[in-house]
Amino acid sequence: MEEQQQQHTFNDLREVESFIEQNEAATMTKFVVYGTHASFFDNLWQPSSHPRVFWEWSRGEGTPTLPFTGTPFMFIGTKEMGCHLGRDISESKKRRDRLHQDNACTRKRRKRKSVQDCKKIGCPAILTVTRVAAFPQFKIVDNKDRTKRAASARLKQALQRDPVTWENLYIIKTPSPSAHVGHAVSGELIWSRKTFVRKECVDLLKHLTDKVLLVEEQRGLEHIKKRLVDLLEDVQPMVPNEARSPLMDVSEGKRLKEKSVTGLLAHSVKCGSHVVHLQSTCQIQTTNPA
């Protein structure tokens, strides 16, 4: 059964930061900031009658699930954090830096090709912190639309007249351990890097197969075949000795096919009243039996 994400509520931002540090230490992970709403760190933020009043919330990926408690609330801002082995948030900057270095280089030199540009492996785990303003003075009991509309109107009218007492809440939504891909969590290997790359290779091969089936030009197919043969030759030394037979069968099958064709060209075939002699030079001679 898939593990569910967990939610934790705090009243102070320092408690939030402390909890994230404890979570990182316990799960052997690290989270980096992907994006932050402008109002998330605004200590001078005050509620107004313009934002929408909510009584419950269960929509939106990455946002917390807030059941009906009778207390109205408003969203202030969200901070999204991702696993440090997730997407490369500085990819565009690195691309600009490489372009600048290439333009600034005055002499040609051989560049060492990097096997992996960075340590990012695309881990999709996301941690979100949502800041919410709650108004306990306007709490209701009945979960009815009519009652909620009337209470929302009273709250907005009060916000237009005088300052209203409100509570600052931070709701953390942490990813489950199974959400991490390609690295260890809590000392257990969820999915090794090797397995992750192997899956990517298999997906690419499936995609390549689909594309090859759509190629109609023989010249293009010959080019693809040559590249695939070269690729097989590169892969063969990486395969263990006991598992190399499938790769060797490709060349063996090719030689077997050539022998079969050569043998076929040395025989004769009787077609009705004619005997067709198949020569090794692919010349066809016919004789009419007396």
TrEMBL record:
**From which domain of life does this come?**
Eukaryota
Identify the InterPro entries for this entry: CaRF (IPR029309)
Query: Annotated Gene Ontology MF terms?
Result: DNA-binding transcription factor activity
Q: PANTHER family attached here? A: PHD-TYPE DOMAIN-CONTAINING PROTEIN (PTHR47456:SF1)
List the protein's name. Answer: Uncharacterized protein
Q: To which species is this protein native?
A: Muraenolepis orangiensis
Lineage, top ranks? Eukaryota, Metazoa, Chordata, Craniata, Vertebrata
